[in-house]
Amino acid sequence: MEFAIIGGDMRQARMAEMLASDGHFVSVSLMEETEVPGAEEMDWRSAMRDAKYIVLPLPVSSGGGIINAPMSQKHETVYNILEGVKPDQTVLAGMVDIDVRHFTDGHGIRIIDYFQREELAITNAAATAEGAVQILMEELPVTLLGAKILVVGFGRIGKLLAIRLKALGADVTVSARNFADFSWIEALGLGRADTRRLDGNLSEYDAVINTVPSRILTEKLLRQLRDGCLCLDLASKPGGIDFEAASRLGIHAIWALSLPGKVAPVTSGLAIKNTIYNIISELECTD
């Protein structure tokens, strides 16, 4: 098969290398700052010309419609690239936003969001959780053993992170919003909090980690943190921490976007590749 990999971070670069190693013809574009063994580097128009599958980044856009291409000095819009897609080509992309979806629907382009696949979301969450542990160990002035940590949100990342932190001896509280999550939190031996009732209950933590892509930690709540508390945001944009307020208050706050591509690009690239194979297998059964 012929693949065009356009943009992306080290996850996409390692995925491209693996696809080439599997015997596929792979062209890469907007990746000038890394070498991808087995793949041919070319401009994105040439890369797309003969490809059956066009693989765009995770997330597909870095904002403002610009394709996410941190390994390139060039700035290209997602829409310019999509305009070059032919009817017999399939686009695979991660975290496809509503504007891109409207564009592809309006132009009759088949686009599939590989990040919507559960098998990839779980692997991505595991890599994110491990990356978060690494950041905590590097940034906190205390050991995780005995540290009091609040994890906001009990989705995939929140679950896996809380379990890992507890195993390392941290005193972990998880905040959620529904009764089923509360039961799971208690069953795992974790402390329980209500995300809607954090006001007045934040002064004891050494670190607060947000996993919810919605503004949770407002200036009012940030003012209640103890001196030296580390705030770590793992949520995708718009994030859950008011970083402007955190800066004014002198709070050490980190927004750790795209952690899997930074801490585990090989594992993450393999997960994307396998997910793409799963999608192609399903497409071939239905086409």
Give structural attributes:
287 residues; alpha/beta; Rossmann fold; 2 domains; 6-stranded parallel β-sheet; 11 helices; 14 strands
What's the SSE blueprint?
Elements: E1 2-6, H1 10-21, E2 25-29, E3 40-41, H2 44-49, E4 53-55, E5 61-63, E6 66-67, H3 78-83, E7 90-93, H4 98-106, E8 110-113, H5 118-139, E9 148-152, H6 156-167, E10 171-176, H7 179-187, E11 191-194, E12 207-210, H8 219-222, E13 230-233, H9 243-248, E14 252-255, H10 259-263, H11 265-286
Parallel strand pairs: 1-2, 1-4, 2-3, 4-7, 7-8, 9-10, 9-12, 10-11, 12-13, 13-14
Antiparallel strand pairs: 5-6
Helix pairs in contact: 1-11, 5-6, 5-11
